[in-house]
Specification:
- This protein is an alpha+beta fold.
- It has two helices and five strands, in the order H-H-E-E-E-E-E.
- Strands 3-2-1-4-5 form a five-stranded antiparallel beta sheet.
- The longest helix has about 40 residues.
- The radius of gyration is 35 Å and the shape is elongated.
Length: about 140
C-alpha cells in the first residue's frame, strides 16, 4: 500500500515537471518595412518631445532658483563668537547660527572674534539645520 502511494506521488511529480518544462510553439511574423519605419519615427518623435520638455523644465527651474536667490537676500546683526577657515558662528538676539562658506566672504578678513557685525546672505538661517545659502558680505556694525 505504501509503495503504491509512493509510486503514484512520484508519477504525478514527473508528469507535472514534464508539463511545466514544455515549450509552446511560438512563431511570429517579421514586421514589415512600413511598420518598422513607423515605429522608428514614433520613437524619434517621443525622444525629441521628452528632450524638449526636459530642457524647458530645467530652464524654468534655473530661472525660478535664480529669482528666489535674488529675492531672498537677508541680513543678520550679531556678535562673532568663533571664526574658522570654513565657517564662523554669529550670536544675534534671535539665536546662534553657524554659517559655512567655500571661499571667505567679502569683509571677513576685516573682523575678528567678539566684533559686532552685519552679515548679508541668501538662503535660510536655522539654529538646528546646516546653513545652505551663500554669504555675500560681512561688515562691522556701527
Amino acid at each position: 500500500m505504501k509503495k503504491r502511494n509512493l509510486i503514484a506521488v512520484l508519477m504525478m511529480t514527473a508528469a507535472l515537471a514534464a508539463g511545466c518544462g514544455a515549450k509552446a510553439d511560438t512563431t511570429t511574423a517579421a514586421p514589415t518595412q512600413a511598420e518598422t519605419t513607423k515605429a522608428e519615427t514614433t520613437q524619434a518623435e517621443t525622444t525629441k518631445a521628452e528632450t524638449t520638455k526636459a530642457e524647458t523644465t530645467q530652464s524654468e527651474t534655473t530661472q525660478s532658483e535664480s529669482q528666489k536667490t535674488e529675492e531672498k537676500t537677508e541680513s543678520v546683526t550679531g556678535k562673532i563668537e568663533e571664526i574658522k577657515d570654513f565657517m564662523f558662528t554669529i550670536e544675534s538676539d534671535k539665536g546662534t547660527y553657524a554659517m559655512t562658506f567655500d571661499t571667505a566672504p567679502e569683509g571677513l578678513s576685516d573682523v575678528k572674534e567678539g566684533d559686532e557685525v552685519t552679515v548679508t546672505y541668501t538662503g535660510e538661517l536655522s539654529e538646528v539645520d546646516a546653513f545652505t545659502g551663500t554669504i555675500i558680505s560681512v561688515k562691522k556694525a556701527n
